[in-house]
Amino acid sequence: MSLPDRLSRRAVLLGLGAALALAGCGLTPVYGPGGGGGKLFGKVRPRDPDTPLDFVFNQRLAERIGPDDAAVYDLDYRISATVAAQAITPDEVTTRYSLNGTADFTLTGPGGQVITQGRVSSFTSYSTTGTTVSTLAAEGGARERLALMLADQVVTRLLAAASKLPE
């Protein structure tokens, strides 16, 4: 038996072994039958946005779990963001800032029972080495990225909790 034959045979056996191991683990695809994706899609109404961060956050939620056309669940959240100097020159000029954010969230069902709650966090940064306009644009872009990252993490947590919801 040649080396390529042994390698392809080994690859097939490893692939079959991996498939069998995954099939027996009890995991369900989130958007497959019985997964949490279908249970939440179009059924989560986030609270009304108050800040530009909230608007981006809500938009991302709608992209990921659908618009709240047939809302059954309410999502309350609070986003906080802090700015910290990250790179300071010997002349004490800050050239880079870090934007750190957290989102506390609570998903409630009909009757107000709490389905899941938690906190997610992330960070991003931006440069201040250009003009005032470019610095403001960089900060705005960083805030938008932060809101997107936080929304993605919240959606992941919601989908994980949704697998326990009734059909």
> Could you tell me the strand content as a percent range?
25-35%
Number of strands: 4
The biggest beta sheet is recorded as:
4 strands, mixed
Query: Termini distance?
Result: 53 Å
Shape: globular
**Regions with little confidence, pLDDT below 50 for 5+ residues:** none
Q: Spatial order of the strands in the main sheet?
A: 1-2-3-4
Q: Structural class of the helix and strand makeup?
A: alpha+beta
Please give the count of helices.
4
Order of helices and strands: HHEHEEEH
Radius of gyration: 22 Å
Average residue pLDDT: 86
Helix content: 40-55%
Keywords:
167 residues; 4 helices
Tell me what you see in this structure.
- This protein is an alpha+beta fold and 167 residues long.
- It has four helices and four strands.
- The chain has helices at 3-23, 36-40, 52-65, 132-162, and strands at 44-46, 73-88, 94-108, 114-127.
- Strands 1-2-3-4 form a four-stranded mixed β-sheet, with helices on one face.
- Helix 3 crosses helix 4 (132-162).
- The longest helix is centred in the last third of the chain and has 31 residues, at 132-162.
- The termini are far apart.
- The mean pLDDT is 86.
